[in-house]
Design the sequence.
């Protein structure tokens, strides 16, 4: 019932929520703006990855997570994507993770 109250949100698999995060123009624009902001900061790609993960998850990324995310950016670069597009794709990937969507 949409009007009932809940003390705690239960986990559910709602495809509409994931589809909105993947396809909604507002989400894509916010990811682009996040990438633009990140491009203006100093530091190498690893530092950017770490800052973006911290912003998305509210915690420091593990070494393994930084490696995976950096590899993602390298794959984007190998495909010929410009830096802005690579960071936008990373931001979009981060907001589509389970940890970003659900509170612990």
Sequence:
């Amino acid at each position: 019932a949409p009007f009932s109250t809940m003390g705690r949100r239960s986990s559910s698999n709602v495809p509409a929520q994931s589809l909105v995060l993947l396809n909604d123009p507002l989400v894509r624009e916010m990811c682009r703006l996040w990438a633009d902001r990140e491009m203006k900061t100093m530091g190498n790609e690893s530092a950017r990855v770490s800052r973006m993960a911290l912003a998305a998850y509210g915690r420091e990324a593990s070494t393994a997570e930084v490696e995976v995310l950096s590899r993602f950016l390298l794959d984007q670069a190998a495909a010929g994507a410009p830096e802005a597009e690579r960071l936008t794709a990373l931001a979009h990937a981060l907001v589509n993770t389970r940890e970003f969507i659900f509170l612990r």
Notes: The chain has six helices and no strands. The mean pLDDT is 85.
